[in-house]
Structures are given as C-alpha cells and as structure tokens.
Amino acid sequence: MQSRLSDTELIEQSLAGNQSAYAELVKRHQRFVFTLAMRFTKNREDAEEVAQDCFIKAFRSLVSFKQESKFSTWLYSIVYTTAMTSLRKTRLDTASIDDEDTLIQVANVPSGYDTDNIENKSRSFYLNQAIGQLTADDAAIITLFYQGGQSLEEIARTLGIEANSVKVKLFRARQRLKEKLERNLKHEVKELI
C-alpha cells in the first residue's frame, strides 16, 4: 500500500515515526542515488558509502524539508554535497577508463535475447562508458537531466547555481559527451573491421 503513496505522504508518515514509510522512500530513490554517487566517486564501494550517508543525512534532516521542491531534488542535492565532500576528503586515485569498475550500467530487466534488447544494452554500455569518462560535474548534470528527469531549475537548486548556468553547463557537457561517444565508437568500429 505504501508504494502507492506520494513522496510527500511518505515523508509525513516518516515524521510521525513510521519507519517503513522512510524505508519506502529509500527503496524508491536508492537506484538513482547510487547511480549519481557512482558518477562522482567512480568506485562502487565509495558510491555505496556516499549513498548510505545521504539517506542517513536525509532522514536526520527530513524535518527541515520545506517541500519547496520535489523530494528527489532535495535528496539529490544531499547526494551532490556529500559526494563532493567525500571527494575533497579522499582525493581518489585516477582510474583507467578501461577499468570496468569505473563504469555503471543501469540494469534493465532482460526480456529475452531479442535484437532490440541487445541493441539497447549496447547503447547503454557505450553511453555509460562515455559518461564515466566525463568530469564528475558533467556526469552529474547529464545524469540529473536525462536519467533523473529533472528540470534546469531543479538541477540549479540541487547544485546551488543559477538555472542559466545549468543550461550552459548542460550544453557543454553534452558536447563533451558527444566527443567521448564519437571517439569511443570510432575505436569500436576499427576493431570490427
């Protein structure tokens, strides 16, 4: 029954002491929080830690959520600040772009071995590989806009910058993503020939 409730209703229940309501909020948003954390950390263990920290921080700060934006926007701003803090603390070593651990693929439920499914997985692989090669800021903006479905204004609130700045950053991030895809796919085509 809780899965049919809105985020706002679940927040109200959580604030009233219903722990399973907060568990449902976590369940709804955990995949995207993890994906966004992974875009920053490029490391599964660190992304899991950032995601867990985010949900703990969100729970502790839930009473301060003013509902001026969507819950997801508020939560993703926590992910952004937590990931940035984590990166500043530990200054991660550079990882090879060929290292599979630096890539994440959003899992789709497989529907068999039809060609559309294989083609979608291939597209997803190359897209995630290219996003993994972007800077953390570029990857976050691309992820928030396309996978998170957030508007420019929501991303601006998440990142604490102006909407016009987000528009410019998104445009530039798209250009860099296009360059990465063209370079990566050019190498793939050469390997096939």
Question: Care to describe what's here?
Answer:
The chain is an all-alpha fold and 193 residues long. It folds into two domains: 1-92, Rna Polymerase Sigma Factor, Chain: A (Orthogonal Bundle); 106-193, Winged helix-like DNA-binding domain superfamily/Winged helix DNA-binding domain (Arc Repressor Mutant, subunit A, Orthogonal Bundle). The protein has eight helices and no strands. The protein has helices at 7-15, 19-41, 44-61, 71-90, 115-132, 136-147, 152-159, 163-192. Helix 2 (19-41) packs across helix 3 (44-61), helix 2 (19-41) packs across helix 4 (71-90) and helix 7 (152-159) packs across helix 8 (163-192). It is globular and about 55 Å long. Residues 92-115 have low confidence and may be disordered.
CATH architecture of the largest domain: Orthogonal Bundle
CATH-assigned homologous superfamily of the largest domain: RNA polymerase sigma factor, region 2, helix turn helix motif
**The first-level CATH class name of the largest domain:** Mainly Alpha
| Tally of contiguous helical segments | 8
Shape: globular
Q: Quote the distance from N terminus to C terminus.
A: 54 Å
Which percent range fits the helix content? Answer: over 70%
